[in-house]
Amino acid sequence: MGSMDNTAKRLLQRLVRRIPSQMLKTTLDKWSRLTAAQRQSMDYTESKWALTEKLLAICEENELTVKHIAELEMIHVIENPNLGMWYVFQLMDPQDDAHSVELTQFKEQFKSHLSELIRHVSIKIKKHTDEAVWIRIAWGDTFSRPNHLKPTYVVHYLQTPYVFLTSPTSKQKPLLSQALVLSTRYQAIKDANLSGRKLTAIRDLLMKQYLQVFPTKFPSPLAERNCVVSNLHIEKEQAGSAANRHQMACEAFGDGILPQLQSAVYKLETKFRDHTNKTMTERDEPFKCVVKFASTNLLESLRHSASSGVASTPVTPLLSSVPLKGKNYFVITDNGPGPSSQMKPSQK
Amino acid sequence: MCGSAYKNRPQPNYCSCVVPVWVNERPVREILTCQSPRTTRTHPRTARRRPPWSFSVARTPTDSIMAQRRSKNKSYRQSYRSCLGAASRLSHTPGWTARRLNTSRRTKSHNITEKVNPEDLALLVKTEWQLSYVTPLYQFRHTQLRSYSRQLSAFITAEKQQGLAVEVEGAQTSFRVSFSAVQGLGETDDDAETVLLQIHSKPVFAGKDEAQKLVWSGWLTCINGNPEYLHLLPKDFTCLPLFGSRGAENLTSLVKSWFQQTFDCCFGPLEINQTCLQWLAALWTNCHIESSIQHLKMIWTLPVEPPLQITYTVNSQDVWELWNSVRNPSLESREEEEAARSIDIEEVTRFMQGLKSHFYRHFRLDLSAGRLSQVSSALGSAKFSGRIKMSNSRYVLTTLTLLTECALLKMPI
Amino acid sequence: MSLLKPFSKLPGLNTANILLVESEEQFQQSLADALVEETSVTVNVRLAKSLPLPMENDESRPRIDLVVFIINLTSELSFQSAEASLKYLDPGYFLGKVCFMVTNARNASSPAERLDAVRKLASSLHCPLLFAEDQTPDGVASATERLLTILKVAAGLVPIATALYVSNLTRCTLPLDIDLPSFD
């Protein structure tokens, strides 16, 4: 029996299945565990099954282990950050030296802190070109070896308070939090209530990397662009208010292409108030409901609904909080702080 | 209406075209559907006995050539129509079917477990069905179910073997169809008995002893069908307007085409429209006191770019209290019981309005701009696309009554 | 609140002015583009989401000869918005200078009840009800043609015919049985 154990084989099989054939070559090239001759011998027009068999043989030949296969997986995940679900956590209360943490120090610290907390753990850290530190963690427990088939990925941009995680379980989360807090020189970490399938999108949203529009008294180029007359004989009576709606929609959600967020969830526990319904309005208990907005690009959908008039303007703080606060999960109560306190009675 | 059925499923012996015209100085847009001489069909006898709804009539001043080709039935239809004056809906449906939109329904729960064979009932509930409507069946006999089972089995086997070069040994037995009548489901004497269809099959590579597996099931039903409509049907026609199916798409279409050939009927997709979904939301909520609905979930689709989907899930107790608050004050004394059982469309509208206004108060977004596309609770789920799941046998009849009504509205006259 | 009045301004020479009111602002644009192509008369199109129209345009706005309410039957809001806009029209308009145009009447997601409601509205106001198809160029062309026919009459450009006369022939009538109680 060679170096490749069952886990390694299954991991490789799964990876080859997941990576599209046309991408397999570049991914393997980046891996640099195969010799030039071995890479040459691969025929990417073959079936996935044949490719897997071939790769398994090469891995045996090169005496590669599960750790090497994990590297390959990491390359694939870094190249495709928009697969899977990412959850955002926010570091709080930086210590004085938090700003001076650099990569080698962070790497060392994180590894040693996490290994102290849990005996069987396999950690791989890689720095990506855009300043992001990618961490792959395979968890084990006191009695079992790290499970490489269910890894957690952590992405952290040094000197920012944001940490992005995939699939952390409730058991692993506290360990991970502690290691992160200690190695980044912060004092606490909290759930930022933001999640999405596209890492780049939620990162852009948090770091405000989209075209923002600020309120102004003067007619903006936005409004003017919108009033282009298509024909001398056609006149829009309400062009002014349309431009106004568009301006307000852009102020709330931004202009141009917006980060692709898939959903936003609101848990409402507020009183039912409707002047036509006395019984419900007089009821003491809150009206409990959950509202989920979903779209291929939520922010663009919301911006369009405000500019087309489906949503009334000015945009409610509940909706504009998504880009403003970088959150997409909200719990709204009547007396609690936050957007709900700004709510006005029904305008309807 | 009749036009839509043919529009979605073009058939070789139908031609349809959209003709925008002015009729009596009134603009109407109708789908003109006319049938060419029935050369392709297998039952020439039915051609002589066409029921009125086989033709959807388009009254256009320009179609005189078409008019000449029409049979006697059509002139009968036209005169019938003209004596009723302006047609309703899309200037298309004569009077007596126009007002089949119910504005009030009874909601009593039915403990049908005593009346209906529990096995049959178990088949009906807890699975999701794709709905279609079916025009009345010509010369369908409940006494012939056994023979239909044989015929349909043979039909499916024959169709499946098309294109096979060599006859496969024992392939005749690969599909076994069973027709059965579900007794006790119908509410009135006018309702034809529900028919249950099941197709069992043995996988191609299965061993000899392996049991046949249920691969497809479906049913045809009519619960509380409009008696006026049912009485106006000529003899020899059985009205089972609601068709539910589950299983492979190709088997569904084979079953449909066998029915079309054998009973000279037509199938069309049955969407569960917004009013119907709202009814279901209210009917289910109304049941909360008897059997917990757990939550009421509604999905709206808003026509913005890209489309926005809003899922609005309300706590069962809260939604029930809202429902109670919009109910009409119950009538006094002996009428009280009856009033408690019946729901009015105004109540449903107020209920939805209440839900929408609570939503608007928070998001300043008007759900009326979109359309309700799905409603679900612990009692079942219904989708606009025509998928329905009934999770509790007690409310099967109420739901099927509503759906029968939707299906009857689709009947071409 | 300012009412839109049919006769407060002088008509232009060989000119017809039409106001398209549509809350969704979708179909009106393609209709407008097709309407202004008309060569026999000068057609001016004003587009609005709802009424009332803004005061500041009063000066520049020509006399409106025909007001068209476009209702998308799949949207409840579309109908509600049109209904709410009606009260900003001078009663004089209802003598043949208003018409309703519905789209998506055959769409499966538009409930039959809503079409009935539009019918009732149109017939109670003695207005014609047009059915249009907004997705295809052919549909837009035929809708445009119908509107032009009514518009020319409403603008007084057709000898002998008057808006009031034509509207008597074209107005929507209600089926006799629309309010009969249902079975059950």
From TrEMBL, chain A:
Listed InterPro entries: CENP-NAC/CAD_complex (IPR052011), Chl4/mis15/CENP-N (IPR007902)
One Pfam family of this chain: CENP-N
A biological process term (GO) from this entry: CENP-A containing chromatin assembly
Localization per Swiss-Prot or TrEMBL: Chromosome, Centromere; Nucleus
Any one annotated GO CC term: chromosome, centromeric region
Coiled coil feature spans: none
Entry keywords, A to Z: Centromere, Chromosome, Nucleus
Membrane-crossing residue ranges in chain numbering: none
Predominant cellular place of this UniProt entry's protein: nucleus
Top-level taxonomic group: Eukaryota
Family: Belongs to the CENP-N/CHL4 family.
PANTHER family the UniProt entry points to: CENTROMERE PROTEIN N
Protein name: Centromere protein N
Organism for this UniProt entry: Oreochromis niloticus
Native organism taxonomy: Eukaryota, Metazoa, Chordata, Craniata, Vertebrata
Automatic annotation (TrEMBL), chain B:
Localization: Chromosome, Centromere; Nucleus
Family listed: Belongs to the CENP-L/IML3 family.
Keywords on record: Centromere, Chromosome, Nucleus
Pfam families recorded: CENP-L (PF13092)
Domain of life the protein comes from: Eukaryota
Designated name of the protein: Centromere protein L
Organism from which the protein derives: Oreochromis niloticus
Keyword Nuclease set for record: no
Key word Nucleus present: yes
From TrEMBL, chain C:
Keywords per UniProt: Centromere, Chromosome, Nucleus
GO cellular component: chromosome, centromeric region; nucleus
Superkingdom: Eukaryota
Locations listed in the record: Chromosome, Centromere; Nucleus
UniProt cross-references to InterPro entries, sorted A to Z: Centromere_Cenp-M, P-loop_NTPase
PANTHER family per the UniProt record, alphabetical: CENTROMERE PROTEIN M
Protein name: Centromere protein M
Organism (species): Oreochromis niloticus (Nile tilapia)
